[in-house]
Amino acid sequence: MNEKKNTVLMTEGGIFKNLLFFATPLILGNLLQQMYNAVDSIIVGNYVGSNALAAVGAGASLIYLLIAFSLGASVGAGVIVSQYLGAKEKEGVHKAVHTALAISIILGLILTAGGILFSRKLLVMMNTPAEILDDAACYLRIYSYGLIFNVVYNMAAGILNAAGNSRRSLMYLAAAAVVNIFMDLLLIAGLKIGVAGAAIATNFSQAISCILALWFLFRVPADYRISLKSLRIHKAMALRIIQIGLPTGIQNMVISFSNILIQASINQYGAMAVAGFSAYLKIDGFNILPVLSFSMAITTFIGQNYGAGKYDRMKKGMWVTLLMGIVYTVLTGILLLTFSGQIMRLFSEDVGVIAYGQTAMRYFCPFYWILAILHSLAGTVRGTGKSIPPMVVLLVSLCLFRIVWIQLVLPYYTSIEGIFILYPVSWLVGAVLMILYTWKGKWIEL
Predict the structure, then answer these.
(1) Is the N or C terminus of the chain more exposed, i.e. has fewer CB atoms within 10 Å?
(2) Is the separation of the CB atoms in 115 and 144 below 8 Å?
């Protein structure tokens, strides 16, 4: 293999083709990842029961909170690496990738320890129903042992994606998906060890994807190759990564906190509501993750073209990404609504669980295109290195607005619909703000 094969620069050629070829492996990889997360819940729901399904879902918002900051760091590293690659600065690429990986190892160890020590306390603070608390704490504690693999893999994937080599991430997630499904069937359906089996299976799969990604980075004949002896934190480079990644990390953490408040509100409706909503969130990912993939694709595209000084190409890429995101979310929203009953019955035959899941779908599915606009524009601006404006917009719409809604509006609702309607309304607020900034803000330095 040569360097050209392992590095894809999107500064030349057809914009639609560049973005589609880069985004497709990201989308497929995320769908694979979501698929094996969904399989976890399907197997748990069918072989253990609705309470166990609720227990697995109860900690989902906490898991995202634990990894939220590290995801921001991987975004910051990806922007820096893509800009250096676009500018063809080999020394900058070398320092960026080694600093990024070192940061991820440190963060991974800290988050693993934090998850193990505080998982049950956090679940209690969220008013997790008593009938599922023990299983939820067990799942979250065991899952936390694998956080180091999750964090390091996300950083490694960020480096690969910055180099335009998103196909590698797809290959490694495919391997992880096969391992996860096999381990689920063995541990849950076969050995009958319940929610602990789901957590162990996920940890094994994340370890596999992490090891494979690192193995490739240690061997690839390209500027972003990792050398063990060069693995260190370069102070100036770390500050650049943190400068870009910190706003995204803070944004992710604060949004995760708002989602925890939402989950706490849902917990008050009982285990069936928790089970139905958590089951739907596994389906929700088949819309959300591709939207985030488009956002990641345009961030890399913008980063490379910004580094190369091709500003007109950046704007055209933004419009192409908006079109792809809107078309995808409209089509999938229609499909999910059409087959909502059949989809929910995959997770449980319990009428209550199915009803809550279908209610969520009616409020979410018609409006994912709004979320596509929000994240496509945020990814566009973020690719120039200006990560603070998207952070502010996302914090205002997906956190502050939601908290205000929970405190001031939700008390007037007597049913769970007051929570579900909050999602599309907050997406709309964010999309409007992001459109205004992209239109009027000075995010391209001419």
Answers:
(1) C
(2) yes
